[in-house]
Amino acid sequence: MRRAGRLLAATLAAVAKKATAGTSLVELEREAEKLIRKGGGKPAFKGYKGYPYATCLSVNEEVVHGLPRQYRLSEGDLVGIDIGVVFDGWYVDSAFTVGVGKISAANERLLSVTKKALWAGIKQVKPGRRLGDIQAAIQQAVERAGFTVIKDLCGHGIGRSLQEDPQIPNFGKKGTGPSLAVGDTFSLEPMVTFSSAHTATKPDGWTVMTLDGKNAAHFEHTVAVTKDGVEVLTLRKGEREDRRLDATNRFV
Predict the structure, then answer these.
(1) What is the DSSP letter of 72?
(2) Nearest-CA neighbor of 221 among 195, 188, 185, 190?
């Protein structure tokens, strides 16, 4: 999973650099699949429950599962880039939302709050903690900033399959849920918007959008519980922001 995580992190970073005004979502899809296969992996999403692409590319009010298509990105858009990789039978999953060119101050804050909520959850990961501790930390980070957690979608276990138990909503009560044990691996992924906590699915049968049509953001990492705390398996180069995260991507 570490090897898969490194490949996925590099792929995400490369695709994000190409998310500029005038670039089509199809071009981002092609770049992602090319890099995954070149690195010795396979796209984890492609074929999963019939999904036909290597990426999910969600623009503006689209929360997750947006289909790569001929739409060309415009200045001010938000685009969520969600990719999964399978390497030697092991799965990882990661996502983040980027702004295209100059974006509004409100959208900048939406991205910042969602990213901080993900890290608030990650910092709760250690043996003996409960899933509810993670869920509550994410929810509090979002709601204290005046934003809303999407309640129709959640994070999940991951390992030999792309999605495994447990389901991990981005809201909950501290001290509840299963205890974390060394070796557990799961994907944390807060999805955040300005107001409505609920969603609708577009006629394509895949794309999930906010119910009120307002923009959304999505950040995700695959993590592992270690004896010392947590290892972030999909950390991108240069992303290490917290001073307690050491050179091996573990909190110390």
Answers:
(1) B
(2) 188
Look at the alpha carbons of 89, 49, 64, 99 in this order and tell me if their dihedral is positive or negative: positive
Q: Do residues 216 and 66 lie in contact, with contact meaning Cβ atoms separated by under 8 Å?
A: no
Q: Do residues 115 and 78 touch, judged by C-beta distance below 8 A?
A: no
Helices (H) and strands (E) in the chain, counts: 4, 15
Alpha carbons 143 and 14: distance in angstroms, whole number: 32
How many other C-beta atoms lie within 10 A of the C-beta of residue 159?
17
Averaged pLDDT, 80-96: 98
Which residue in this structure is represented by tokens 């691996």?
185
* The model's pTM: 0.94
CA distances from 39 to 13, 53, 154 (A): 14, 18, 29
* 96, 226 contact by CB (below 8 A): no
| 131, pLDDT greater than 60 | yes
User: What's the CA gap between 81 and 102, in Å, rounded?
Assistant: 18
In 70-146 the beta strands, taken as DSSP E runs, fall at: 78-87, 90-99
The reported pLDDT for the residue numbered 171 is 98
CB within 8 A of 109, min separation 6: which ones?
145
Q: What percent of the chain has pLDDT over 70?
A: 95
Domains and CATH numbers, the chain: 2-232 (3.90.230.10)
